[in-house]
Amino acid sequence: MKRALLASFFIGLFSASCTLLEPTVVDPIKGAGVVTLKFVQLNDVYEIAPINGGEYGGLARVAHIRDSIKQDFPNTYLFMAGDFLNPSLLGTLEVDGEKLNGKQMIDVMNSMDFDLATFGNHEFDLSEKDLQKRLNESKFTWTSANVRHVTENGVEPFTTKWEFSNVPVSDYSTFTAMDADGNQLRFGVFSVTLPSNPQPYVYYGDIFQNAERAYDIAIEKSDFVVGLTHVSINDDIEIAKRNQELPLIMGGHEHFNILERQGRTMIAKADANAKSVYVHTLIFNLRTKYLHINSELVPVTDKIPSEAKVERVVNKWTEKLDESLQNVVEKPDEVIYNPAIPLDGRDAENRSQQTNLGGLITRSMAYSFQDKVDAALVNGGSIRIDDMLAGQLVSRDIFRILPFGGSVVKVDIKGSLLKEVLNFGKQKKGSGAYLQRYKISENNSGEWLIDGKPIAAAKVYTVAFSDYLLKGLDIPFLTEKNPGVIKLYIPNENELGGDIRKAIIAYLKTQKK
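The chain above was modelled as a monomer; its predicted structure follows.
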C-alpha cells in the first residue's frame, strides 16, 4: 500500500453529536491555508417529488439545501451513492412509445448540477440498452472501481457519451477546491458496488480489492480520498478496516440513516427517497494536512422551500404521472390508510420472508373476490418500492408499491400442485419468485397449511394469484396448461380484481383508521 503522502495526515472526526476524536498530533501553523468543503450526500432515491402527501423528500428541496450551502461555501459538492434509476412508478410510464426507465431521474439530476454518482444494484434492473441511454443523457460524472461492462470485445469500463467521444467511467474522480486566497487542494472519490444484481452485461470485481486499488491510485494525486459506495454496512466497515487512512465513506443500500465509525473512518448513509441528506463539512489545513470532518443528518421536510428551476423539471414529469394515474384512479392523493407500524416494502425482505406489506397485498387480493377464496399468493418480486412505508398512505403509494399492476386471477388448483408451487417459492428464497401469502403457513415440520390445516394433495383449492404468476415466468410449471390447474377465472377491467392496485386501495379504505 502506498501511504507516503499520509505520513503527516491526521483526521479529526465529528459524529452527528459532535464528539471529537482527537488526532495524535496537531501542529497548526499561523497563516496556513485552510479550505472548507461541503459534501451533500444522497442515496437510494427513487422519487423525484415529495412523498407521504408532501411531508418529506423531494429533489427540488434538496437542491435548495445545496444551493443555500453553496452561497456561503463555494466548495460544495452533490453526490449520489447509487440506486436512483429504478424502481419507480414514473419509470414504468411510456412517453413517445418508450418506457422512461429512469429518464426522468437523469433529467432532474442534470437540473440539480450533480457532481458525481455511482452505480447501485438497481441501476442494473435496466436493460443494457436503456442503461446506456441514461449514461449518455447524464451531464454529471459517474465512477466505479469494480463495475465493468461485458461487451463483444471483452470486459471494459462503462462509457458515457460526450459531444465528440465516449468517455470511460473511471475508477475514481478527482476535484480541485481552493480557499479565499486561491490556495488549492485536490481530493479524490472512489466507488464500489455490491454484486447483488447479476446481469449478462455486467461484471463485478471484488469489492475490497478494488476499493483498496482505487484508493491507492487516487491518493497519489490527491490530498485526501473519500469513498462513495453502494454496499452493505458490513462491507463498508471492512473497506474502512482495509484502508485505515480513509476519512469518510458516503454509502447507500440500507435505506435508513446510519452514522458509524470504524477506526478513523466515518461511514454515513442517508434515508431513502431523500427523506434526509447528509451534509459533511470537511476542513483541510494545507500545511499540516489535518482534516476535520463534521457529519450532519438534515431531514428534508415540507418546511424546506423548493428550488424553482428543479421544481419545474420535477413538475413536468409528475404532471405526466398524474395524467396516467387519473386514467386508473380518480383521487391519487386521497389518504386511504394509516398503518400502526411501518409497512416493509424492502426488496430483500419481500424476497426472503413473509412481510406485513406482503400480507396486506394478499389479503386485499382475497377481498377482490369477496373473500370467497381459500388463500392468496403474490410473488415478492412484484413489490418494487424497496422502502419502508410509514405514516398515512395515499392511493399513489399503492401504485409506487406495484408499478407494473396486473390483475388478480382466481384459480381452482389441486393441492398437489399448490404444494409444489409453495415449495418452489421457498427454494427460491432471495429471488423474485419467493411467495408472499395469505391464509397459508408452514408448521415446524415444513408442512404447508391453509387456515391451520394441512394441504391435501387430492383436494381442489380456490386461490387468488397475481396474474404474473400464471405466466410461467417466475414459476415455470405454473401455467394455465398445467393439469393441476382445474379452472382459471380472469376478471375484466371493471371488476375489482381487474387491477391489483385498485383491489388494495378498496380493501384499505375498509380498514382506514
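Residues 1-31 have pLDDT under 50 and may be disordered.
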